[in-house]
Amino acid sequence: MIDFDAHLAPYAAHSSKSRGRRHPEAAAGSRSEFQRDRDRIIHSTAFRRLEYKTQVFLNHEGDLFRTRLTHSIEVAQIARTLARSLRLNEDLVEATALAHDLGHTPFGHVGQDVLNECMKDYGGFEHNLQSLRVVDHLEEHYGAFDGLNLTFETREGILKHCSLTNARQLGELGQRFIDKAQPSLEAQLTNLADEIAYNNHDIDDGLRSGLLTMKQMEEVELFARLHRQVVQQYPGLPGRRELYETIRLMITAMTADLVDTTAALLKEADPKNIDEVRASPPLIRFSPKMREETTALKRFLYANLYRHFKVNRMRVKASRIVRELFEAFMTDPVLLPFDYQVTPGDTMKQARKIADYIAGMTDRYAIREHKRIFSLDEL
Ligand code: MG
């Protein structure tokens, strides 16, 4: 029997001590429990759909922009680097990172906001909870159970936040939101790896699209400082290389800061095992200075990129598509594929099925479906 946990710190999530799966299964032998989770995620249908779901820029706007898929891969890469430096479980962070956006709607955040509004009388819609719903119920891959039957630890990492009402319905997994406890270090780490990934790749995508300019970027202290360093080291470097070098230094600065700050916090808190981690305050953190700088960067991106009028135009169009699809299906559920129709009269159940159907759509599928429903020229 391979010891998958030999190199891990005592406070890491150990595969041999996993709280297990909802439907018990024999160990895989050649793979740790979390490797097995990762593999199930990669083979899922929802994972392949990430390729055609928007991160910030719509999928068809350009071939080089991040999609949910490339974003998730970047999060996994950063999370694994961090996990290895801190002797945490790389397999678990990889599984969590690759699954963290599985429940995302088409068209990025606007899709989730609109679907949440549409669902307000039917229990609401949270993309985080939807990611869990995908891996627990919606995937249809196995003979013995619905979903992917992942371990408690991977599911814990996927569920970043959740309302108290929903937490009460989730049993063991929801308990930490009621107790105000923390998840594993691996879950905390994946969360921050997500932030490092999008803060940096959105600068790249923003500049590539022309919605941001290098001159504007100088307003961001962290970027400006590292950019100056690049220009000094490589005078006259062509623009794109200068940008990549700067982003590279930013990712390094953020990951190094996180590792140093966290290592010190762990040394002080000295948790003996994962349960002590869950009872401690958050231990994976940036230093106060880095936290301040990343907050400033986020604020900048929000004002100048996420709310750029060209992004707004797409956002409003996308919200119209999602809302109109939802309303059309609620009014006439007979328009839905048979799998998504329920016994007439059960409005709650029908609404949830419609939310599942819409959330599962890729951007282009949603656009096409909207045409099929509303245009006489499409069938
Ligand atoms: Mg993400």
Describe, in short, the structure shown.
The protein has a domain at 15-201 and 260-289 and 302-310: Hypothetical protein af1432, CATH 1.10.3210.10. Helices cover 61% and strands 0% of the residues.
Overall description:
This protein has 379 residues and is mainly α. The protein has a domain at 15-201 and 260-289 and 302-310: Hypothetical protein af1432 (Orthogonal Bundle). It has 18 helices and no strands. It has helices at residues 33-42, 45-49, 68-85, 90-99, 108-118, 127-138, 152-158, 164-168, 175-179, 185-209, 214-217, 221-233, 239-269, 274-279, 288-306, 309-331, 347-360, 363-374. Helix 5 (108-118) runs parallel beside helix 16. It is globular. The termini are far apart. The model has no long low-confidence stretch (mean pLDDT 95). Bound molecules: magnesium ion. Magnesium ion (MG) is lined by residues 71, 75, 100-101, 194.
Q: SSE string, helix = H, strand = E?
A: HHHHHHHHHHHHHHHHHH
Estimate the mean pLDDT confidence.
95
Structural class: mainly alpha
Just give the CATH class of the domain at 15-201 and 260-289 and 302-310.
Mainly Alpha
Task: Name the beta content range.
Answer: under 5%
CATH topology term of the domain at 15-201 and 260-289 and 302-310: Hypothetical protein af1432
CATH architecture of the domain at 15-201 and 260-289 and 302-310: Orthogonal Bundle
Number of strands: 0
Total helices: the number is 18
What is Rg?
22 Å
Q: Which percent range fits the helix content?
A: 55-70%
Assign the CATH superfamily of the domain at 15-201 and 260-289 and 302-310: Hypothetical protein af1432
**End-to-end C-alpha gap:** 56 Å
In this entry the ligands are:
magnesium ion
Low-confidence stretches: none
Give the overall form.
globular
Largest sheet: none
